[in-house]
Amino acid sequence: MEKIIIDNQTYTREKLNEIENESVREFLIEWFSDSPTVNLHTSGSTGVPKLIVAEKSRMVASAKMTLDYLNLKPGDTALLCLSVNYIAGKMMIVRAIVGGLNLLIGDVSSNPLQNEERHIDFAAMVPLQVYNSYRDKSGRFSKIGKIIIGGGAIDRREEEVYSSAPNEIYATYGMTETLSHIAMRRINGVNRSDYFTPMENVDVFINEDENEDENRNVGPLVIKAPHLCAETLYTNDNVEMRPDHTFRILGRKDNVVCSGGIKLQIEEIEAKLSNYIHADFAVSSKPDEKLGEKLVLVIEGEEGSLTLKPASTLSKYEIPKEVFYVQHLPRTESGKIARAKVKEMLNAKC
After folding, report:
1. What CATH class is the domain 260-348?
2. What are the boundaries of each domain within the chain?
3. Separation of alpha carbons 292 and 302, rounded Å
4. pLDDT by residue (tens digit) across 94-116?
5. 72 has pLDDT over 90
6. Tell me, what's the pLDDT at 48?
7. pTM: predicted TM-score of the whole model, two decimal places
8. N or C: which end of the chain has fewer CB within 10 A?
9. Across 277-298, average pLDDT
10. Distance CA 178, CA 322 (A)
């Protein structure tokens, strides 16, 4: 694994300086160095970004896991349209090295297929890129063999739109600490599912000390994957797990609002509100003397009328007590809504 193929051109360790793309070149120089580790940074979507030192051997294990799961073969083309500053972009490069894939360096933009004419067997995208690429009139999206989607939840309505696409499309679950995804679920075709299936040699279970529902196996997800992460990883993601250890994401534990003694999962409410709101928005909370916390809605854009119909999808507890309009929602560098900063913004309005 001392070489990489980029757009049909083979680059060895000695020829890395010939690579035009600066971000790719700098990562490959770091990867092919004698150091057994590389530096990674988390996205900071739920707090302050942090530095993680990852072992290259574990990144190779992660790459092999994905290559095997998707049955990718040497010579298959893989589109890099994600920032190399984060784990998703770095792992596309590592998969190309490990699997002998032909890496195609594309546009890191919201519509990466807009100017793309090359044949693509495999691509990784974030939901916004999929949204725009699917609607691109060129039809290039449907010609990609296999697509994995990460970096954020997929809107339920959008998932239904993609369900009839002719290619293989997967939602992924993972994080920087697990060196990309540790579980996938098919979102189209006959094998589509709402539940993630753990990948090979990945054990998942519920933190029994925080199981919140006696009738369902619900609580924070725990991941044990020693080939990827040396320590057992206790996540902040609340999930519902079935007996076969497939699981459905409910939302983050720290995105639970306790209002008047009722626990409300922000992500589940946002999924319901997406049927009514066609702008970017976030559900959050503010301190309240009576309720402890009250649920609030923050919408990006000009103030306008908003009609909620609680009888249809929202329970009476899930109806936001206040609605705020802002010009721009705070976001991380990777485009995710920075929830901690949203709360800071709301607290400043108290």
Report:
1. alpha beta
2. 3-200, 260-348
3. 29
4. 999 999 999 999 999 999 999 99
5. yes
6. 58
7. 0.79
8. C
9. 86
10. 37
Query: How does residue 312 score in pLDDT terms, banded at 50, 70 and 90?
Result: low
Question: Among 74, 75, 165, which Cα is nearest to 125's?
Answer: 165
Of 172, 246, 254, whose CA–CA distance to 210 is shortest? Answer: 254
Cβ neighbors of 72 (< 8 A, separation 6 or more) are: 66, 78, 95, 99, 101, 121, 122, 146
Cα–Cα–Cα angle for 58, 61, 65, nearest 5°? 145
Strand partners, 10: 5
User: Quick one: CA torsion of 51, 64, 97, 91, rounded to 10 degrees?
Assistant: -30
pLDDT at 78 exceeding the cut of 70: yes
Per the structure block, which two tokens stand in for 49? 């970004």
3-200: CATH number: 3.40.50.12780
Q: What percent of the chain has pLDDT over 70?
A: 92
Fold match, 3-200 / 260-348: no
What's the pLDDT tens digit per position in 114-146?
999 999 999 999 998 999 999 988 899 999 999
What are phi and psi for residue 176, nearest 5 degrees?
-60, -40
